[in-house]
Structure formats: C-alpha cells, structure tokens
Amino acid sequence: MRAIVAGFDLGSMGRRVADRARMLAEESDLELQLIHVLEPVAEAMIEPELAKLIRDHERDEARKLADWVRSRASVPVDLEVVNGSPSWTLTQRAKKAPLLVLGSSTIDNFSVGPVALRVTRMSQTDTLIVRRQPRVPYRRVIAAVDFSEQSRVAVEHALEKFPEADVTVLYSLPARFDPLLADAGLFAEELSASREHRLRLATDHMEKFAAPWGDQVRTQVVDGPPISTIEE
C-alpha cells in the first residue's frame, strides 16, 4: 500500500504536520510514513559526546510523537529517523508518495520555511504545507488559477485529494502591469475601462475553464493582486 509521507521537526509544528497527515491518510485509506531527519551538527563545532546526547534525545522525541499519532490513527503509521539534509532526504523519500506533508516556518506560521521552500522546488510530489493545528478535515479549498495547463492539474488534484471539501476555483486579475500602462500614456479613465474589459474576458475564460467540473466547483473572478485576494 502507498503511504502519505510527513516530514516533521520536534517543535509544535511537527505535531501539527503529523496530525494533519494522519487525517489525510485516513481519508484516503493510505498508510502514513513519518520521517524525522537528523541534521549534521559538525558545523556547529559540537563535540561527539554532546552530538550523541542530541541524537538520542531526537530519536526519543520522534518515537513519542509517532506513538501519539498511532494512538489516534485508524491506519498503519511507520516512523523513520534518518541522517542527512532535510530537504534532500524528504524529496528522495517522497518520490513515490501520493502526497508529502510539511510544516510552515517555525518562526512565522504564515511563511514557508527554508526546508519546505527547497522541497517544493526540488520535489515532483504534491506537497502540502501545514500552518495551523488541525481539528477537522479540510472543508474549504481554494485553487488559484491562471487558466494554464498547470492550473487545470491543480484543480484536478484538489478534487481528488479533498473530495469532501468545497472547492473554489479563483482567478485574480493582476495589477502589476497597470503602472506600465499609465506610464505609456493611458489616462485613469482608460485604465479603469481596460481593467473592466479584462475582467469580463477573465469571466468568460473562467466559464470555459471550469466547465469540465460542472457543479463540483465554485468559481470566482476578482480584481486585485493574487497574493492579497487569495489571503482574503
């Protein structure tokens, strides 16, 4: 049986990652593979005795977390503690996995940390970044699209991985070219008319783009920078 892979650290974010991965594995009737990577400590000039102390502590805490997940899980849960670079190791371990689950930054939950960022760039496996403490399965999913083939695949994956969720397909009309149009000579009224025209075009594109999914998705076309509109 294939397994969802969850890479976790030993902080509070690690527990969030493991619990969300458990929920997803149960929803998909898949096994769960928990992975904790032991990073090299030589560059920090840590003596061998202290390095062993750190390693023993990490392994013990990883086992405790795995036991906690198993106590809540209805699917098999396996734990792997390995040495190496977190981003490289997780990318390799998740090559054949249907999903890789990681945590956001341990400093700022609303930012993607360096390990997760590197993994998403290197990995060909679908990757989910967890921010908050999970309490229930995902109920609302936003698929941000630009009408490309990659966007179509993103919507398909959202429907496949979260079949019980309310999926909204969202297109945000970028504003980054408007200053260039203004500098090129368009008056404010012309710029406003241009945006209204582009919004109508985007609405037409959305209707055609979302047609294959019928009532499986909701659609929304909004005016504004994608990052801001998605957060809203």
Question: What does the secondary structure layout of this molecule look like, with pairings?
Answer:
Layout: E1 3-7, H1 12-28, E2 31-38, H2 48-72, E3 77-83, H3 86-93, E4 100-103, H4 114-122, E5 127-130, E6 140-144, H5 149-161, E7 166-173, H6 178-183, H7 188-210, E8 217-223, H8 226-231
Parallel strand pairs: 1-2, 1-4, 2-3, 4-5, 6-7, 7-8
Description:
With 232 residues, the protein is of the alpha/beta class. The chain folds into two domains: 3-130, 3-Layer(aba) Sandwich (Rossmann fold); 140-231, 3-Layer(aba) Sandwich (Rossmann fold), CATH 3.40.50.620. It has eight helices and eight strands. The protein has helices at 12-28, 48-72, 86-93, 114-122, 149-161, 178-183, 188-210, 226-231, and strands at residues 3-7, 31-38, 77-83, 100-103, 127-130, 140-144, 166-173, 217-223. The strands form two sheets. It has a five-stranded parallel sheet with strand order 3-2-1-4-5, with helices on both faces. It has a three-stranded parallel sheet with strand order 6-7-8. β6, α5 (149-161) and β7 form a beta-alpha-beta unit. α1 packs parallel to α2 (48-72) and α3 (86-93) crosses α4. The longest helix is centred in the first third of the chain and has 25 residues, at 48-72. It is elongated and about 70 Å long. The model has no long low-confidence stretch (mean pLDDT 91).
